[in-house]
Write a structure and sequence with these properties.
By secondary structure, this protein is an alpha/beta fold. It has helices spanning about 10-15, 20-25, 100-110, 130-140, 155, 165-170, 190-200, 220-235, 255-270, and strands at about 55, 60-65, 65-70, 115-120, 145-150, 175-180, 205-210, 235-240, 280, 290, 305, 310-315. The protein is globular, with a radius of gyration of 19 Å.
């Protein structure tokens, strides 16, 4: 079973909020595996986005022509039970990235000058500040790199770890630094988390959010309306609202697709454009984040096409 790690900050919230508790505390539902569909095989729902096959050197995933994903660590301040990378995340030793690994990544970028964006992820790169600061320094010096992104949940899971040293490292970067923070429920917006976001903004980071539809957590118009409204008010731009990936051990979080579309449609009617995230399915085999039409249109809710034109079933 996927490892359990819960920060003291989240334990405190979970005492009074079941939606937050469900995200981090294990349940018996995790032993029920997703039923394999025609377009999936046994490995697909362990690695639904086919990241492993695109790994070019340790920690570097190159799926899209002009950008790379860099997995700097496989640890987090807390482990989300619905994590897309739960096959890897929590394997701390395997996820250790050295300076030598960074040099191999830099060499790969030199050979691929069309790459102009790096996305640091993991695990949670903000929980590995030493290698993150080294990587930021090295990659930001490359003239071909125009954009740097960092994916994190640290402001939610353990906001006190947003240190002055970390903020200074971000502030020194000449490129725009976009920080994507996972938010799933309004209860996560504690005063400590809001302060952490404020500190990141003052350090020059541009903040955006990613959220996932989760059954029993946020599959409600009212909850998501409150979440996205509050995020834009604290300077975090809602960016993506995903359908939960078909990850082994996380199928109990998946919401009925038609219900998701109905909620997303109502949100679009009532949220401002700034507060509205793109509702999308991360296509199987890693072939694109496909925007989902809303009920303003008549469309086939059974299938769609990915970036390569391959037909996929909605599951």
């Amino acid at each position: 079973m996927f490892a359990v790690k819960i920060s003291d900050h989240l334990k405190k919230i979970s005492e009074t909020n079941d939606a937050v508790r469900k995200q981090f505390y294990p349940s018996e539902s995790e032993i029920h595996f997703f039923q394999k569909e025609d377009s999936f095989n046994s490995s697909s729902f362990r690695d639904p986005l086919s990241e492993d096959q695109y790994e070019k050197t340790k920690g570097l995933v190159h799926k899209y022509k002009n950008r790379v994903l860099i997995l700097l660590t496989l640890t987090c301040a807390a482990y989300c039970r619905f994590c897309t990378r739960r096959r890897k995340v929590s394997d701390i030793e395997k996820g250790v990235i050295s300076k030598a690994d960074i040099q191999k990544m830099l060499a790969y970028l030199f050979k691929n000058p069309e790459i102009n964006e790096v996305i640091f992820s993991g695990g949670d790169p903000l929980t590995a500040p030493i290698i993150l600061k080294y990587a930021l320094k090295k990659f930001s010096r490359l003239s071909q790199i125009k954009i740097i992104r960092i994916g994190t949940r640290l402001p939610v899971s353990n906001p006190k770890l947003i240190t002055k040293d970390l903020l200074l490292a971000i502030k020194k970067i000449k490129q725009p630094v976009y920080i994507g923070i996972h938010f799933e429920h309004p209860a996560e917006l504690t005063k400590e988390t809001i302060l952490a976001c404020e500190k990141l903004r003052k350090a020059g980071a541009i903040l955006y959010s990613q959220s996932v539809f989760l059954k029993g957590v946020n599959d409600s118009y009212e909850i998501l309306y409150e979440l996205f409204t509050k995020l834009i008010q604290i300077g975090v731009r809602p960016y993506y609202l995903y359908r939960c990936d078909p990850v082994e051990g996380a199928c109990h979080f998946r919401v009925d697709f038609k219900k998701e579309v109905a909620i997303a449609t109502k949100l679009r009617k009532n949220l401002s454009g700034l507060a509205w995230p793109t509702y999308a399915i991360d296509a199987p085999e890693g072939n694109g984040k496909i925007p989902v039409p809303l009920d303003f249109w008549e469309f086939n809710k059974e299938k769609f096409k990915d970036f390569l034109g391959k037909e996929k079933r909605v599951i």
